[in-house]
Amino acid sequence: MPELGARAEFLLKALVERYIAEGQPVGSRTLAKEAGLELSPATIRNVLADLEEMGLVRSPHTSAGRVPTERGYRIFVDTLLTVRPLQSAQIRRYEHELSHEDNPKQLLENASHLLSEVTQLAGLITLRRRNQSVALRQLDFVGLSAERVLVILVTQDGEVQNRVIHTERQYSPAELVQAANYFNETFSGLPLADVKRALLTEMQKTSEEMQRMMQLALDMARRVLLDEKQDIDDLMVSGESKLMDFPELGDIQKLRRLFDAFTKKRDLLHLLERSLRAGGVKLFIGSESGYEALEGCSVVTAPYMQDGRVVGTLGVVGPTRMPYEQVIPFVDVTARLLSGALSSLGR
Amino acid sequence: MPELGARAEFLLKALVERYIAEGQPVGSRTLAKEAGLELSPATIRNVLADLEEMGLVRSPHTSAGRVPTERGYRIFVDTLLTVRPLQSAQIRRYEHELSHEDNPKQLLENASHLLSEVTQLAGLITLRRRNQSVALRQLDFVGLSAERVLVILVTQDGEVQNRVIHTERQYSPAELVQAANYFNETFSGLPLADVKRALLTEMQKTSEEMQRMMQLALDMARRVLLDEKQDIDDLMVSGESKLMDFPELGDIQKLRRLFDAFTKKRDLLHLLERSLRAGGVKLFIGSESGYEALEGCSVVTAPYMQDGRVVGTLGVVGPTRMPYEQVIPFVDVTARLLSGALSSLGR
DNA sequence: CTTAGCAATCGCATGTGTAGAGTGCTAATT
DNA sequence: AATTAGCACTCTACACATGCGATTGCTAAG
User: Fewest CB within a 10 Å sphere: which of A77, A274, B143, B284?
Assistant: First the structure.
């Protein structure tokens, strides 16, 4: 990659900013006036030709100005972008939106809405994977009918999960209560990870008569806690329809593919998963994501945490031409605020 | 409304059917061949002119054929439509899709998906209002932190609802268990309606020392069961993006308004509510719904039941030009199948 | 290295012409 | 009285031409 000079950088920055603001190809004349450099359009044309050669800008056609390419955007956000830190008054307002919520699921939904409303793009958030460090509060067994038992799992943060399992024989309410008591006495207050481990190791132990209820409890608990399916992440999307306002996504075909990706969720989940590991904001510009449906779109993501552990990812999707200098810090802040709100749930 | 003759009716029917099938305005020549009547195009033109005068068809422009108006569609579905009853093999397939599901919420989602997949339109379903005749199974109180208690409500059909409430003082786990026991001993097995009534009437009774726990339980139960907000219906939409394939909805503006209606939900909920009372399939053609967002769209709905009581509505949304003769019976069948599946949940 | 000048290119809007589809009307036919 | 053939008319869709404006690349001068 040939180093580009300070002037070329400056002009690239000016061009991208202008294009993001106006949505029109930017010509040499405009740039000459806009940039503030004392240069004639002709000189600027030379520089632009260089940038085009490097694949950072391109002309839609001969007599149009230039628009950034994906690589151009990439250089822009990596090395030229000046992010505006958010006003602390704003931050407090957003925090307020998130703090008044007891229900963890609802909290995530609020965060997604907030992302969409503030950026006017589509908000994304993965339901967090069951945090293995969260403590188990209690397990309940409720007999629904012969051989069908409803298992209710409550964690320290107030999240309730439930699932119906089928048993080989009918259990009386008393048996179920007793089984739950045994189980809770042993495991309540322990992190889910520890409970799981215990469930796996206790698998083989002999069943003494005295422990019959405990065996039952362990068995039912296993079928809920160790079920892989429960761990599959899910995705929530908010404000998709806002994307229809962008003229660059005006093509119905493209829009259809994008919206399909929102319902299918699989590809987006993979994408969001990729940004789980590294902390901080991650950007996928256009085809960098590798998914055709996201052609012409950028995704800005950030992982969020609960009690110091990364448990999910949030972000926004919008056209490649989006105001990165505002979106990036906002996604960052939202992830932090949500992490704070989630972590205070268990207290 | 002047009675239209048998021939006019026949031609209207042919015209609508042809238009639904092809999506193009239908001319007199086409209709002469299609209809099988031994009539010349000129004669048909005369009839079409009459239909136009009555407001049942219209010309997009001078040299195009005719297209049904909303009133035309209305006459068509009310008096001319010949619905094809579904094959029983098909019905069994659909039933199969719905029967293997223990979780009530998931069941509704499956129904919505089924609607969308089979009709290739957008599927709608209201989450059912809490069925007041379903029996309460049990109530659990789980202390989350000082002064925050998680209340878990389990009904006979295996549905779990939960809510965090704030108390004035901290309760020990033992107190909470005791309170729940009192409550469940008294109310478990009773229909929710009865429980609610009891909660309201017992409000005023004096609190004897012996009953302190019961008072606590009643108080908490009230705050969950009598909360109006819980009763607000919610709406699920599936396969919205399929609507983007219809050329008549190709206008992005229109599409945007429609998708906004899907997220706002309010208007659609009102519409679906209207069809709660009467049994059987209801149709809203174009502006009949009264909502601008549904311009050019029809909604086909049917109420569904649980244990003999209407608890919600399902249906589809699509362009006015939809294959009613298939959609109507399918919506009807889906409502019946779902009703059956829901009713067998409690057993 | 920068700039002015200039021909060249292209999109876009506008206008024109033509073919095709379908209509309404009138007069002839049954 | 109902039906039909004939015909002028209207409108769209499409193809093609034209002019305008914007912007470029190139060249030669500063």
Answer: A274
